[in-house]
Design goal:
With 177 residues, this protein is mainly alpha-helical. It has one domain. The protein has three helices and no strands. The longest helix is centred in the N-terminal third of the chain and has 80 residues.
Length: 177
């Protein structure tokens, strides 16, 4: 009778410890799912912000183009009234308008590059969170290497985003010339 009681107690303890391990895996999966959800929300917000910034920059560019067209049209009307002096004036206004458009185009490129950079960084951060949560679910011996790989991937993504931003800024600078 005593051995039956001991065996029953051991079976109950082993059964409970197996349940705890299952709960740990479920908790880990839940954390990964929550991290994915949060990452998706943060990425969606970053994309929404980037789209808003891009739309605002595009509106500025369109307005600048329209203003430039209006300036050129006004200069042409003056040129018809005073052919000799107005031709020179029209050239000056057109050049200035092109400079304004180039400046706004450069600003648009910079704004788009900043927005793209923000999205890339948000995505890299979100991917890192998800990867780290997955690493937490791994056995201790594999967790460290997994985290190192996740951090390395994050740094590469950030470096790529920075390089793209720098390239776009160089293009914007060239656009103003």
């Amino acid at each position: 009778m005593k051995s039956v009681l001991v065996v029953s107690t051991l079976a109950a303890i082993l059964g409970l410890s197996a349940c705890n391990q299952q709960d740990s895996a479920v908790e880990a999966q839940q954390k990964v799912d929550e991290a994915r959800q949060q990452a998706a929300e943060e990425l969606a917000q970053a994309q929404q912000d980037a789209a808003k910034q891009s739309a605002e920059a595009q509106q500025k560019l369109d307005a600048a183009r329209e203003a430039a067209r209006a300036d050129v049209a006004e200069a042409d009307a003056k040129a018809n009234a005073k052919i000799n002096s107005a031709t020179s004036e029209a050239m000056d206004v057109a050049s200035e308008a092109q400079g304004d458009v180039a400046e706004v185009r450069a600003d648009t490129i910079k704004s788009q590059a900043d927005a793209d950079y923000d999205v890339a960084i948000a995505k890299a951060d979100a991917d890192l969170k998800v990867a780290l949560e997955k690493c937490e679910a791994l056995p201790a011996g594999q967790s460290g290497a997994c985290k190192d790989q996740a951090n390395a991937s994050h740094e590469i993504a950030k470096a790529n985003a920075r390089r793209a931003l720098d390239d776009a800024q160089a293009i914007a600078k060239d656009t103003q010339r």
